[in-house]
Design goal:
This protein is mainly β. It has 2 domains: 172 residues, Sandwich (Jelly Rolls); 97 residues, Sandwich (Immunoglobulin-like). Helices cover 0% and strands 50% of the residues. It has no helices and 23 strands. It is elongated, with a radius of gyration of 20 Å. The N terminus is likely disordered.
């Protein structure tokens, strides 16, 4: 696979570190060694996830063969309908996180936009706009990995095939584990929710300006690595309850668009990083 860059909406990261329970939808079962465009159907299923589109769209999902000039170095999927939907959900309806997706231009255009929408379990949405520019300025096309921010606790993720069109690959998904999400209005009242915590413990809500890396310098969890950086500070301590739960609180303008992470007492386990709405 030819991947030129790894980027994030908040901070550029030098490499892609997968969660221990992550899986990758890589569409390699659709690979074909020819110069053709091959239809893949209206539903593509892989590793317990379904990629679907709207009923009534005239064209199916498709892939380029390895000898097609627009093949981006790895088998990538695209909706062949203009403004067609790409919708990803677990086949069993369970919630999941999306860590990153690879995108490439579909044709010789050098810049494309993808407006991603994550539909949260229990309500609410998270959005992110990806602006992809082909690193080489055209053919041959290259996949680029984009880290997603706050796409945790999802029922589904979706976007549309907007002109001038794109293809996608290597959807990195994780399920289970200690997860955190933030919903609500900022400034205003936000809801911090968690799942996968150890029951009946205390946990700290830790704030940081951006995603990155910070080591807790002292205290019971000294040496624990966080996934946030910039003016990192403890803002509250709450109980984990049965292992999942939520707490509401006020968020001022200065907090909007920044990040939080949970740290569990005793084990010093850390949750996924979540972005405060902006």
């Amino acid at each position: 696979m030819r991947v030129s860059h790894v980027v994030s909406a908040a901070v550029a990261i030098g490499g892609l570190a997968l969660s221990a329970n992550a899986q990758v939808l890589d569409f390699q079962h659709l690979e074909h060694n020819d110069g053709q465009t091959t239809n893949a159907g209206n539903i593509v299923s892989e590793d317990g996830f379904d990629i679907t589109k709207n009923q009534g769209e005239p064209f199916e999902f498709a892939t380029f063969g390895t000898q097609e000039s627009r093949y981006p170095g790895s088998t990538a999927l695209f909706n062949n309908t203009v403004n067609g939907l790409i919708h990803i959900a677990a086949a069993d309806g369970s919630s999941f996180d999306v860590e990153s997706i690879d995108f490439a231009c579909l044709n010789s255009s050098t810049t494309v936009l993808m407006h991603l929408v994550g539909n949260k379990t229990g309500g609410g949405q998270v959005t992110q706009t990806i602006t992809h520019t082909d690193p080489g300025g055209g053919l041959p096309l290259d996949l680029v990995t984009y880290n997603l921010v706050g796409f945790t606790g999802l029922d589904s993720i979706e976007w549309t095939q907007e002109s001038p069109f794109h293809q996608f690959d290597n959807v990195v998904i994780s399920q289970g584990g200690y997860r955190c999400s933030v919903t609500g209005q900022c400034p205003g009242t936000v809801r911090v929710a968690w799942t996968g915590a150890t029951p009946n413990r205390q946990q700290g809500i830790v704030f940081g300006n951006s995603q990155g890396s910070t080591t807790i310098p002292n205290g019971a969890c000294q040496g624990t690595q966080l996934g946030i950086q910039g003016q990192v500070r403890l803002v509250n301590i709450v109980g984990t309850g049965s292992g999942s739960g939520s707490v509401n609180g006020p968020a001022g303008t200065s907090a909007c668009g920044h990040f939080i992470q949970l740290v569990e007492s005793g084990s010093c386990n850390t949750s996924t990083v979540a972005q405060i709405p902006q």
